[in-house]
Amino acid sequence: MNRPKFALLALALGLGLLITLRSAVGASNGKALGHIVRFDLVQIVQGTVLACGTDMATDAASGDVINLTGSGEFKPGPGDAAGGGTFVQTSGTTEIAHGVWVVTGFISWQPAGGTLPPVADGIGQASEASSGIVTLAVRLFPLGGSPHDGVLTVDCHLPGATFPVEEGVTLTVGPLHFTQSGGNTLFHILG
To answer: CB 3.0-4.6 Å disulfide test: which of 24, 51, 77, 114 passes with 158?
Structure first.
């Protein structure tokens, strides 16, 4: 008779500890895992952050460059993600491929806090802006070619970030590993 009571007590204490730890993790990240986070590759025009920017990344081995546009949303707790944009891959002055990319899955999110510098926020509320790193599974659809799966990382650095973050994007597709070489990004943590 004591064993079932002990098992129920242990289960209740374990669940309480799990809930407490999950709340602490959400609080330590500055934002709960259940929030929707928007990401944008941005441009800054006349002191205003706007969507529809272009980020550039370079593959060190081949020298190829990829230019990406895009935006999307993800929900870290359940791991939902959606979004997409365009890409153009060049080698020197020669275009290798162009097309669209779409998010196919959520991999990870590391929020880093921070504060948007004194610019106008043309995407969301400045109070919702955040630094961080999101890693997403993506599929690239080159015009006239076969689709390719890859991993896209969007990194945003704002003053006051809780850890160092490089600004820009990285993209790994097959043997190519494009690393950040230009552009800006921004996250907004929504309700």
So the answer is: 114
Q: Coil, strand or helix: which one is 7?
A: helix
Q: Residue 188 corresponds to which amino acid?
A: H
Q: How many other CB atoms sit within 10 Å of the CB of residue 147?
A: 14
Q: 131-180, pLDDT tens digit by residue?
A: 999 999 999 999 999 999 999 999 999 999 999 999 999 999 999 999 99
**Beta bridge partner(s), residue 68:** 55, 87
Best CA proximity match to 61, nearest among 168, 179, 145: 179
DSSP secondary structure letter of residue 31: S
CB of 103 closer than 8 Å to CB of 138 = yes
Pairing of the two strands 148-156 and 168-173: antiparallel
Please tell me whether the overall predicted TM-score, pTM, comes out greater than 0.90 for this model.
no
Contacts of residue 118, defined as CB under 8 A and 6 or more positions apart, other chains included, come to: none
